[in-house]
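User: Okay, second chain of the day. Same drill as before: sequence in, structure tokens out.
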Amino acid sequence: MKKTIDGAAFCRMIAHASASLNVQKQVINDLNVFPVPDGDTGTNMSLTIGTAVAELNKKNPDTVGNAASIAAGGMLRGARGNSGVILSLLFRGFAKALREQEEIDGALFAAALNEGVTAAYSAVMKPAEGTILTVSRLSAARATNAAEKNPAMEYVLSETIKAGEAALENTVMQNPVLKKAGVVDAGGKGFVVILQGMLDELKGKKMPKEPKSAPQTEEVREKADFAAFETGDIKYAYCTEFICSRDNEKDPELMRQWLTTIGDSLVFVEDDEIIKVHVHTNHPGQVMEQALTYGALLKAKIENMREQHTEILGKDDLETAAPAEPEEPREEARWIAPAEKKYGFVTVCAGAGLEAVFRDLGVDGVISGGQTMNPATEDILRVIDHTPAEVVFVLPNNKNIIMAAQQCIKLSEEKAVVVIPSETVPQGIAAMLAVDPDAEQEENQGAMEAAIQRVRTAQITYAARDSDLDGFDIRAGDYLALQDGKLFGIQKELDALLSALAGGEAQQNAEFITLFYGEDVTEEQANQAGALFAAACPNAEVSVIAGGQPVYYYLISAE
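Assistant: Same drill. Structure tokens below.
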């Protein structure tokens, strides 16, 4: 039985946990009982711990303290969704307790785990029981008791998992929605999978195999041909290449079309698991940010072709240069835009129309994301860094992104970050309309937060799975209407659902109603829906705007 672990063992345990979570992420996603297509808990947790593995592989720490600190830092920046943020907070407290430790036994592990639980609970404004918080707390309590009996690392971790499994099973009884659906909490399940993966590594079990990428059908060029033209003829300076995983259902064709607008020499290859791109562009940073909206970067390379061309032309024309060895990807230096104004604004949304609305309202940076596409804390921080302002207001526009955005407050030392807790795109738009560029920071924050409270948001989507929720018998494919995050109604026909929603209290009492229609709705269909609302709500001014958003047929704002 293993009594202690060192830094190398800890790194292997995290890698094993990450692999275990990756192969079970869809099982965890499927535990999400709400039928809206947002079952991303497993994906978010997998991506979050995956950033820790990537950082550990880069730095190869030799002590547990250093390894835990690196893992926690990676998770904090890579945290996606509420589940990912809570996981990163657990590891942050864990790392704090082990800061000076070269190796640890079960007793130190238990103490660190309890410290992690304290950090997570203190960071969550309204901790809910029957969640990952409950599972981690009861697991940590058992770890402490076990360590008093036997401080061996393997024994303590085994007992920790037993308590975690029992706590996980009990989440069904602690949450009425889980009880009705007959499933356990998804975040709690992910936490137990992580602990089990760590124990499996400690016991010498084989690491689960991650899905293999399909063979590529096209070759991406490693180098551009510089010999046929002058340096000044190079329109796009940067040869940009990457491979990213496909971690969500976002259509790769959207990226392909966008890349054609900002570059040339495009080679675009995709299968069910990865996207591989080669493009010449003047905006490589934007390309990488767009790639991250599909999944984690597996490989990335940027080369300045003008600089390369100048160097090659200086060589003997008769000499054939040997192909250069491909460089290892280098960590991108963090660039902070100097402040040119007092206030800047960053928002999260998906859809060209919605992005245009926010841009027109004065938003500086737009992060592509939302439902099923939660950006990481690092993605949000990068756009904050690039915003040329002293104070940056962030509009998450999704309740599952708010916590990730709030982590940027601590991470951004150069700029003051204010997160406005907008849960929907209409709330974010209302907040921007409330901004006064001449007002003080506190006044703007108060006005924006007050504005989001005045907005009632309806969302029309489809059921991703069968469910029995709030008295509704839901079948996959049914049209769903949500009002302020709660299920309003279901219908087999979209027009019938729109009619019911138009007659709802929020819409009937509104002065202004705006319908943002999604990528699966035609302009003609949207105008018909607008006419329906105008007839049903004669006291409201009704507007119809192309949002282009995925997942939701309509986002409907009522004020």
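The chain is about 45% helix and 20% strand.

User: Thanks, on to the next one.
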